[in-house]
Amino acid sequence: MTSKLIAVLGATGNQGGSVVDVFLKSPGWNVRAITRNPSRDKAYALSVKGAQVVQADLDSPESLEKAFQGAHVIFAVSDFWGLYGDPANKDKPNPGQPLNVWAADHESQQLRNAVDVAAKITTLDRFIILSLSNATKWSKGKYTHVYHFDSKAAATEYAEHTYSDLWKKTSVFQAGFFLTNFLRDPIMTPKKVLSKVTGLKAEVVTLPKSEPPDGVPPELVQELSGNFLYWNEFGFEGRDDPTIIHPKARVRSH
Ligand SMILES: NC(=O)c1ccc[n+]([C@@H]2O[C@H](COP(=O)([O-])OP(=O)(O)OC[C@H]3O[C@@H](n4cnc5c(N)ncnc54)[C@H](OP(=O)(O)O)[C@@H]3O)[C@@H](O)[C@H]2O)c1
């Protein structure tokens, strides 16, 4: 049997890493793990597990062309929070432009780079793009500051409207809220508090409020507050979007 090739962006991260793990265990698949820096320990670990590790950067379409060459499947993921949190990007916004707005624009362009290059890959059977719902659209203009959602949605809509052939073989994947956020992100960590209820002592775990705590950059407060409120009111996935297929529906249909 001739093996197929999956090229995975974000292979050293959560989402791409889980895709790499699954396909390394799947007979008939070769895995190409894409990273900006193949000499990092995480990249080396992937090569030890059997992945072919290649260098590419979402900012460089030329590097993506080499990394996607010959692929039957491409898994594309971008990293808003990496861009927002990287101190090297602190001075990149235009005067008056908040850092999250810059990061969202940049992320969207990076995903569009992946789309442009994927459209040229003649061996491609399936393009999987990690996206999130268009908060501005599905909230009917009520929540316009959920930039890290809208940035991905914009790149996905670009693929749909620019490349009809690529779009026919595109799957849009909206990852749910990672439960690990509650463990790893100080803003989200549940707090144990001691409560006294009619003389009884009880430990109560409080989940994060719908607003981020004080001392957070104002643009992040706006982004996250809008994020939580949008989820509460319109659903993480923009529940009015008729194209959404929930995991439970897929389980039922198989
Ligand atoms: N947290 C949540 O609950 C949640 C839910 C749904 C969606 N998301 C979205 O998921 C994305 C993050 O995914 P993740 O958790 O898998 O990320 P992650 O674990 O932080 O890893 C980020 C990955 O992106 C790669 N990467 C970053 N910049 C790159 C560039 N310029 N070129 C090529 N690769 C680059 C990194 O590779 P190298 O460093 O090896 O180059 C790394 O593998 C974010 O956009 C976020 O909005 C998050």
Account of the 3D structure:
The protein is α/β, with parallel strands linked by helices. The protein has one domain (4-178, 217-253): NAD(P)-binding Rossmann-like Domain (Rossmann fold), CATH 3.40.50. 42% of the residues lie in helices and 17% in strands. The protein has 11 helices and 8 strands. The strands form 2 sheets. A 6-stranded parallel beta sheet has the order 3-2-1-4-5-6, sandwiched between helices. A hairpin with a 2-residue loop joins strand 7 and strand 8 (200-206). Helix 3 crosses helix 5 (99-118) and helix 5 packs parallel to helix 7. The protein is globular. The two termini are 26 Å apart. The structure holds NADP nicotinamide-adenine-dinucleotide phosphate. The site of NADP nicotinamide-adenine-dinucleotide phosphate has 27 residues, from helix 1 and helix 4.
Reading the helices and strands in chain order gives: EHEHEHEHHEHHHEHEEHH
What is the CATH C-level name?
Answer: Alpha Beta
Which shape, going by the Cα principal axes?
globular
Radius of gyration from CA coordinates = 20 Å
Query: Between the first and last Cα atoms, what is the distance in angstroms?
Result: 26 Å
Number of helices: 11
Helix content: 40-55%
Kindly state the mean pLDDT as a whole number?
92
Report the strand count.
8
What ligand species are in this complex?
A: NADP nicotinamide-adenine-dinucleotide phosphate
CATH homologous superfamily classification: NAD(P)-binding Rossmann-like Domain
